[in-house]
Specification:
The complex is a heterodimer of chains A (about 425) and B (about 220). Chain A has three domains: about 25-235, Rossmann fold (3-Layer(aba) Sandwich), CATH 3.40.50; about 245-325, Ubiquitin-like (UB roll) (Roll); about 335-429, Up-down Bundle (de novo design (two linked rop proteins)). In chain A, about 45% of the residues lie in helices and about 10% in strands. Chain A contains 17 helices and nine strands. Chain A has helices at about 25-30, 35-55, 70-80, 100-105, 110-120, 135-150, 180-190, 220-230, 230-235, 270-275, 310-315, 335-345, 355-370, 380-390, 395-400, 405-410, 415-429, and strands at about 85-90, 125-130, 165-175, 215, 245-255, 255-265, 285-290, 295-300, 325. In chain A, the strands form two sheets. Chain A has a five-stranded mixed sheet. In chain A, strands 3-2-1-4 form a four-stranded parallel sheet, sandwiched between helices. In chain A, helix 2 (about 35-55) crosses helix 3 (about 70-80), helix 4 packs across helix 6 (about 135-150) and helix 13 (about 355-370) runs antiparallel to helix 14. The longest helix of chain A has 21 residues, at about 35-55. In chain B, about 45% of the residues lie in helices and about 0% in strands. In chain B, helix 5 (about 120-130) runs antiparallel to helix 6. Chain B has helices at about 5-20, 60-65, 90-105, 110-115, 120-130, 140-150, 155-165, 170-175, 195-210. With about 220 residues, chain B is an all-alpha fold. Chain B has nine helices and no strands. Classes of the chains: A alpha/beta (about 425), B mainly alpha (about 220). The structure holds flavin mononucleotide, iron/sulfur cluster and FE2/S2 (inorganic) cluster.
Chain lengths: ~425, ~220
C-alpha cells in the first residue's frame, strides 16, 4: 500500500477523513464515522436539490480537467432516456500515481456513497466502478464493501426505502493508458476497443450504450458525499473560490514519496515539502513534473504556483493524474521530456493523424536532440507541430502530450539551445 | 521523318532492349506482397467483375486492418440478423477455397486458417456459455480465453466471433488493442511480462532516474 503523507493538522480531509479505520470494509464502523449520512440527506432533498447543493459547492472533477460536476449531473438528469448510468473512474491511468487506488483501499464506502448519490441525482439504476485490474486489494475491499452496503439497503433493490433501484458492479479494467479517458473507458465497459469519441455529445448526454452517463473520478464522488453531509458552504471554506475543496496528490522527490490530501490552492513548494523535497538548506529541484506523463516540466522558479486547475494551465502544466515529481538538481530535462513524449506517443491510440503521427514526430525530434543529431529547424518544428496537434487533436491525450516538449522550450531554453548547438553550427557553415 | 532510314526501328528496339534488362515490375501477388510505402492508405473502392457482380468476397481483411473500424461488411447471416459475422470454420474454409480457385485459379495459403483446426475448442465454448454469449462481455471472454490457452489462438477468436455474433473485425480489433492480451504463447526467456508491464516499467524506471539524478532518464530501450 502507498504511504499516506503526514499533512498539517489544520488541513481538512473531506476525501480521506475516515482513512485511518482499522478495517475499511467494516460498515458499522464507517457508518458510526458518518458514512451514508450524505445519502440520507440526498434522499430527503430529492434529485434537483442534490444537484443544486453540488452546484453551490462549486465541485469540480478530480480526474484532471476540473469540469463542473453539477453541469454533468444536470445534463444527464435532463436528457430524455430510458436508462441512465453512473461510472466511477477509478482506473488511475498514470502508472506513477496511486491516488485513486489509495482512496478505494482506505475508504471504499466514500466512493460507494458518492456513486449512490450521483445515481439518485440523475435517476440511474446501474453503476459501474472501474478499477485497474492490477489493484487486487482495492478490488477485494470494494467488493466486500459493496456486499455490506447492499445488505444494509444503501444500494440494491430499494435504496433507503425509496423504491429507487441501484445495482453497483466493480469492473476490473486493464490493458492501456487511454482507458482513463472517459469515452475510452466507456468503450472498454462495452467490450470494445478503446479509442476516444468526439465530444459533443458528452457522455452525460450519450454515454454507455448510448444512454446518458455520468463519468466521475472516484475522488469527485467521495467529495460529493462529503458535501451532502457537511454542506456546500463548509466545502467552500476549503481551497480557493474557483477551486474549492481538497484533492489527492501523489508526490515524489529525492526525499521520498506518498499520497497526500491537499487543499486546492496550496503551493507546489508546500506540497513538495511533505516529502522534504523543498528544504531551506538543500538545493532546489531542477524541475517539477506536474500532471503525469503528459504533464508540464516547470522550473524551480515556479515552486510558489498555487496547485489549482487554472493556475497550472497558465503555467503550462495541468492537474492531470495528480502527480507532482521533483527531479534531482542535476537531472537532464530534455531527457525527461523525451521519456514523457515517448510514453505518450506509445500510448496514443492511433485513431487520428495528430494522435498517430503527430506524437510520433514529436518523439523523433526529442530523440534526435538528445542523441546529438538535431536539425537546425527543430526548435521551430516543436512549436509548429505542437500547435497543429493541439488545434487538430481528437481527444485531450494528444493535445496534452505536447506539454513536456513545449514546457521545456518555454522554461529551459538555454539547455535546449545547448543541445541544438551542433545543428546551429552546421547551418552556419 | 528521319533522314536515315530505319533509325526509328533501331531506336524502338533500343528501348525494348533497355526495358528487357531493367528489373521486372510484375510480382506474384498475393504470394509476394506489393512493395508499397508504409504510409500508403489507398482509396477504398469496391470493384465489379465483367458480369457486374461485386468482386468483394467478404473476407474481412480490410475491416480487420483498419484501426478505427471504419470498414465493415453488411449482409444477412444465417439467423437472419443484419451484419455478417465470420461463419463456422468449415463454411469459411469452403468459401475461401472456392472463391480463391474461381478468382486465382489456385488456392492461396492462409496462415490464420492453418492455425485453426488443432486447438480444442471445448474451453472457449465453456467460456462463451458462462458469459452468456454476450458481446458486451467481450473483454471478460477474451481474458478468460487467454487464461485458458495461455494466449489468444486465432481459432478461438473466430469461435468467439461466431458465438457472440460480434463481427470478427471487432473481436480482432478489441483483442489487439489491449496490451495485456497476447496472440502467441509467452516466450520463456522473457518471462510472462506483457507489453503493458514493459511500457509502464520503462516509464517508472526513467522517472526514478530523473528523481535520483543517476543516469539519463529517457529510457531509450526500444
Ligand atoms: C489520457 C487521459 C487519461 C485520463 N485518465 C484518467 C484517470 O486515470 N482517472 C480519471 O478519473 N480520469 C482520467 N481522465 C479524465 C477523464 O477523461 C474524465 O474527464 C474524468 O474521469 C471525469 O471525472 P471528473 O469530472 O470527476 O474529473 C483522463 C483523461 C485523459 C485525456
Ligand atoms: S481510418 Fe481506415 S481507411 Fe482511413 S486511413 Fe486509417 S485504415 Fe485507412
Ligand atoms: S489518443 Fe488517439 S485520438 Fe487521442
Amino acid at each position: 500500500m502507498t504511504d499516506l503523507l503526514k499533512t498539517p493538522a489544520s488541513w481538512p480531509q473531506p476525501i480521506l477523513g475516515r482513512a485511518g479505520a482499522k478495517d475499511p470494509t467494516d460498515l458499522d464502523a464507517a457508518v458510526k464515522a458518518g458514512a451514508f449520512e450524505g445519502l440520507r440527506i440526498a434522499v430527503r432533498l430529492a434529485p434537483p436539490g442534490v444537484i443544486a447543493e453540488i452546484r453551490a459547492a462549486g465541485l469540480r472533477g478530480r480526474g484532471g480537467a476540473g469540469f463542473l460536476t453539477a453541469d454533468k449531473w444536470h445534463l444527464a438528469a435532463t436528457t430524455p432516456a430510458d436508462r441512465r448510468y453512473v461510472v466511477a473512474n477509478g482506473y488511475g491511468a498514470d502508472p506513477a500515481t496511486r491516488t485513486d487506488a489509495t482512496l478505494i483501499e482506505r475508504d471504499p464506502y466514500a466512493v460507494i456513497e458518492g456513486v449512490a448519490i450521483a445515481a439518485w441525482a440523475i435517476g440511474a439504476d446501474t453503476a459501474i466502478i472501474a478499477v485497474r485490474a492490477t489493484e487486487t486489494e482495492a478490488i477485494r475491499r470494494l467488493e466486500a464493501a459493496l456486499g455490506a452496503a447492499e445488505d444494509a439497503g444503501f444500494i440494491g433493490g430499494d435504496v433507503l426505502d425509496t423504491g429507487h433501484e441501484l445495482n453497483v458492479e466493480v469492473r476490473p479494467v486493464q490493458g492501456a493508458y487511454m482507458l482513463g479517458e472517459e469515452t475510452v473507458l466507456l468503450k472498454a465497459l462495452e467490450g470494445r476497443r478503446g479509442q476516444p469519441e468526439q465530444r459533443p455529445p458528452h457522455p452525460a448526454e450519450r454515454g454507455l450504450f448510448g444512454r446518458p452517463t455520468v463519468v466521475q473520478n472516484v475522488q469527485t464522488l467521495a467529495l460529493a458525499a462529503w458535501i451532502m453531509h457537511e454542506g456546500a458552504a463548509k466545502f467552500r471554506t476549503i481551497g480557493t473560490p474557483d477551486a474549492p475543496g481538497t484533492i489527492l496528490v501523489h508526490v515524489r522527490g529525492t526525499g521520498g514519496a506518498g499520497v497526500a490530501e491537499v487543499p486546492l490552492g496550496t503551493t507546489i513548494r508546500t506540497i513538495l515539502g511533505l516529502v522534504g523535497a523543498t528544504t531551506r538548506t538543500g538545493p532546489p529541484p531542477k524541475a517539477l513534473l506536474v500532471g503525469g506523463p503528459s504533464g508540464g516540466i516547470l522550473p524551480a522558479d515556479l515552486l510558489d504556483t498555487p496547485y489549482t486547475f487554472d493556475d497550472l494551465r497558465t503555467a503550462g502544466a495541468h492537474i492531470g493524474s495528480g502527480s507532482i515529481v521533483a527531479t534531482a538538481a542535476n537531472a537532464d530535462v530534455l531527457e525527461l521530456a523525451e521519456l514523457l513524449t515517448r510514453f505518450c506517443s506509445t500510448e496514443a491510440c492511433g485513431k487520428t493523424i495528430p494522435c498517430r503521427i503527430g506524437t510520433r514526430r514529436l518523439e523523433e525530434i526529442a530523440v534526435r536532440i538528445n542523441a546529438g543529431t538535431p536539425r537546425p529547424t527543430d526548435a521551430d518544428l516543436i512549436g509548429d507541430l505542437s500547435a497543429d496537434i493541439v488545434a487538430s487533436g481528437l481527444c485531450d491525450h494528444e493535445r496534452l502530450a505536447t506539454l513536456p516538449m513545449t514546457s521545456v522550450m518555454r522554461y529551459f531554453r538555454p539547455e535546449l539551445d545547448a543541445k541544438l548547438q551542433p545543428a546551429a553550427e552546421q547551418a552556419a557553415r | 521523318m528521319s533522314l536515315i532510314p530505319g533509325l526509328g526501328i533501331v531506336r524502338g528496339m533500343g528501348l525494348t532492349l533497355l526495358r528487357f534488362f531493367q528489373p521486372k515490375a510484375t510480382i506474384l501477388y498475393p504470394e509476394v506482397p506489393a512493395d508499397v510505402s508504409p504510409k500508403f492508405r489507398g482509396r477504398l473502392q469496391l470493384l465489379y467483375d465483367e458480369h457486374g457482380t461485386l468482386k468483394c468476397e467478404t473476407c474481412f481483411q480490410c475491416a480487420q486492418a483498419c484501426p478505427i473500424e471504419c470498414i465493415d461488411m453488411g449482409g444477412v447471416d444465417t439467423k437472419g440478423r443484419y451484419a455478417v459475422h465470420w461463419g463456422a470454420s468449415e463454411t469459411y474454409g469452403e468459401r475461401r477455397e472456392e472463391s480463391a480457385l474461381r478468382r486465382a485459379g489456385r488456392t492461396v495459403p492462409d496462415v490464420a486458417y492453418e492455425h485453426w483446426s488443432p486447438i480444442d475448442l471445448g474451453p472457449v465454448d465453456a467460456i462463451l456459455h458462462d458469459a452468456d454469449h454476450d458481446p458486451k462481455r467481450m473483454l471478460e471472454i477474451l481474458a478468460a480465453t487467454q487464461a485458458a490457452y495461455g494466449y489468444l489462438p486465432v481459432a478461438a477468436l473466430k469461435r468467439i466471433s461466431f458465438g457472440t455474433g460480434a463481427w470478427y473485425a471487432m473481436v480482432y480489433g478489441t483483442a489487439t488493442y489491449y496490451d495485456h492480451l497476447r496472440f502467441a504463447p509467452p516466450a520463456p526467456s522473457k518471462g510472462a511480462a506483457t507489453d503493458r508491464e514493459v511500457i509502464e516499467g520503462d516509464y517508472l524506471s526513467g522517472l526514478g532516474q530523473a528523481i535520483s539524478g543517476t543516469t539519463k532518464p529517457s529510457g531509450r530501450v526500444h
